[in-house]
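Tutorial, part two.
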Amino acid sequence: MIVPEISQANKAENLLERLIAPSNRYIVTKVGDLSVTFPDVLVSEIIILDRNAILALPFYETAIIGVTHHQANVMPLLLLRLLIGEQRTLITESLTVVRLSKIAEEFNGQNLSGVGIVVDRVIGSLTIEEYKDLHADASAPEFPSLGVTSFADNSTKKTNQTVANIKENEYTPIEIILLNIPAHIWRPQRWHISS
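Running the prediction step on this input gives:
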């Protein structure tokens, strides 16, 4: 059983190499109990969006809650709770949206530039030095475990992302979640007629 361990180690190295380095800080968001970090270069802007401004897309995966017009562009909205495997979620009256920058243009072979990631709330930011200092204080290695589940297998599965253990908090890099978005999420589903 050495082969799976080696392939998992290679997978961990490949994913860690694909993490985007911030220019100055990490934006820290909260999604349920999970803290998710966005490198500042990946964030175009943070928007508070009224639920009434969303146009639903009924023939797409439930993680795509719809689109909205923003600065003369159509912005697709991905509900992060559903991407990480939560079964159900309520959409509040106002949504906190992290809009991805041009850096996400060729991320994982998908053009994610301008996509809005819906999070529960933005809780702050960490400078690169604070992030590294917290890692130095932590007893665990920087990115210890990898058990990424493919969303293509079952979109309702819980995902074990790579996490950074920082004192009592665990931070999940958004890149790990974005790398696991299946390509089929962007294609409309067919209308099935039941017999």
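The mean pLDDT is 76. In part three we will examine how such features are distributed along the chain.
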